[in-house]
């Protein structure tokens, strides 16, 4: 499942990044960068899925920090687009937004059973869930830009996406830190952990 998620996210990264640059949409650009971050997260998850819990928790902690950095980057991009006054291409936003929603909804459904798993797998599901929400917001932004001729809906959605990333980051980091406290061999050298299957 992680291999499928990785392939889907790499493909959509190329599509959304290109569309974001061509259309002038900060929400599409942000979503495209998020796809790249998720692809990296899935690759990391594949690398550690069979390792002990404390290693998976450390990886999840790194992913949480990455999600926070993404959220802050999106806020910076939204401010820059507000200052520059770029109005994005609404039809391009709509078409690509539908493609991205289909991709993310499929991945999130596939990973749904892992939503209460360890911090590593839970972070994978959180990324997919947040992406599906972001895609719905991009579609709303496309409708808003089309109806108003203003970049404000696009900028507002970018800020929503940043908020989702920051909230997801907090959840993942909190869970990972909790697991590290209870499973780290440095703190509990006698603990016997079984690798994840």
UniProtKB/TrEMBL annotation:
It is a multi-pass membrane protein. The keyword tRNA processing does not apply. One of its GO terms (cellular component) is membrane. The keyword Transcription regulation does not apply. It is found in: Membrane. Pfam families: Cation_efflux. Keywords: Membrane, Transmembrane, Transmembrane helix. Its main location: membrane. One of its GO terms (molecular function) is monoatomic cation transmembrane transporter activity. It comes from the Bacteria. It comes from Methyloligella halotolerans. Residues 2-180 form the Cation efflux protein transmembrane domain. The chain crosses the membrane at residues 39-55, 60-80, 92-112, 132-149. This is Zinc transporter ZitB.
């Amino acid at each position: 499942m992680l291999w499928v998620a990785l392939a889907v996210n790499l493909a959509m990264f190329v599509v959304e990044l290109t569309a974001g640059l061509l259309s002038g949409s900060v929400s599409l650009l942000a979503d495209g960068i998020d796809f790249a971050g998720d692809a990296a997260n899935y690759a990391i998850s594949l690398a550690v899925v069979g390792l002990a819990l404390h290693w998976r928790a450390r990886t999840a902690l790194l992913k949480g920090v990455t999600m926070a950095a993404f959220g802050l980057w999106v806020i910076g991009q939204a401010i820059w687009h507000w200052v520059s006054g770029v109005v994005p291409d609404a039809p391009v936003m709509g078409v690509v937004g539908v493609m991205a929603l289909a991709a993310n909804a499929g991945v999130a459904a596939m990973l749904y059973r892992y939503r209460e798993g360890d911090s590593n797998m839970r972070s994978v599901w959180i990324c997919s869930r947040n992406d599906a929400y972001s895609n719905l917001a991009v579609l709303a932004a496309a409708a808003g830009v089309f109806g108003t001729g203003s970049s404000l809906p696009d900028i507002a959605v970018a800020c929503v996406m940043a908020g989702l990333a920051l909230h997801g980051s907090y959840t993942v980091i909190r869970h990972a830190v909790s697991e590290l406290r209870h499973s780290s061999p440095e703190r509990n050298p006698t603990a016997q952990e079984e690798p994840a299957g």
